[in-house]
Task: structure prediction
Amino acid sequence: MRPALAAAVWCVLSPLAWSDSLDPGDTKVLSFKKSVPAVGGSTRPSVCGSGRRVVFLCDRPNLTNPAGNGNVQVVLLDRETGNYSLASVSTLGTQANQDCYAPRMAADGRHVVFYSAASNLTVGDTLGHHDVFRHDRKTGKALRASLTHDEKEPNAGCIRPSVSENGRYIAFESTASNLTPAGGNGFTQIYVRDMKLGSTELVSAGSGSVLGNGNSTYASISADGKLVAFHSNASNLGAASGTQVWVRNRKADKTELISQGHAGAAPESGSHYPWISGNGRFVAFSSTAGNLTAEDKGPATEDVFVFDRKKEKMRQWVIKAGGEKRDAEVQGISANGRFVLAKSAEVLPFACLVNAMWRMHLIDREQETIELCSVNSQGQQANDTAFAGALCASGKYAVFDSEATNLGNDEDSAQDVFIHRR
Result:
């Protein structure tokens, strides 16, 4: 079989070639083994399209074999085999010599992206900035995604990557001034790296591809890499002010306002943390604006909104606890836009103090339901905060990190990664 065909077959078949041990409603700890001392924690999970493979940050020295080196590394778990491996390694297997951050797993289950100031993951990394890297789980090859248009090192750090379905396109943010021929302007901009062609393209641009005159952050890229959502306080991307959510169509050279007010009105406040569905049709985000829908469901909190780019229709989702509205932050969206993962802050009194307990919720837009995900297999709520989460492409699995001790066979109080099956 020719190599190109073999790779294509592998990508198609691998998500189907495994059996899941979780039943609907089950929750399981993924980052805990009885043979590993309770040292360090595990955070910031991401999951592939099928739910079989999960990546997360971990500084536990002997969760993997070979053991970690004490830095925060990216750990990859194959849920079918139970094997833990390191993704934050060079092509030769050398572990990152600095902490790693914000891992994302491509839907194909093959590629992992993250950022780090490590200097030993690729050749020629000499400037000491944070860079974005891509690990190929199949070949073991490590590549740097944060390179300039002429294959040089950026002159500032690059962080917060987002990756297309097959790992080819990687979006990230940076203040570097040499990533594209147009240079920079001192603000944080969004860029996309084409790993096949070796090109770097500005995304946070207005008409005429002019750089945004404000900070643009939190990129989310579609499955095919054509569309990139982000939030920005730039005033020259279109007719809106304040921090708003935008989508850049790379093929059409067009930047589109997503967090638009109802009936063409200007949004009355900011919108943040966008996630674009794999098919590019839906964008989920959080906003305190009270005029994005015809009938806002006040009082003012940060609610979840989903914009249908095809029908140009906005929907609002309010998360409540104890009968009251709670601030919510979007954590992910399924490939077809049906499911949205969001965390909300429930205010709880403890010893005359007020503390926020963050919980994970899964919104089913088709059934119009909101389901609590940070629960154990018996439906009991987590006894501690869920910090960050992610959703697989189908919406079947949600992963999140928490210090809760009642979510499964988790025998320590350290922060761990969990998976919940819808």
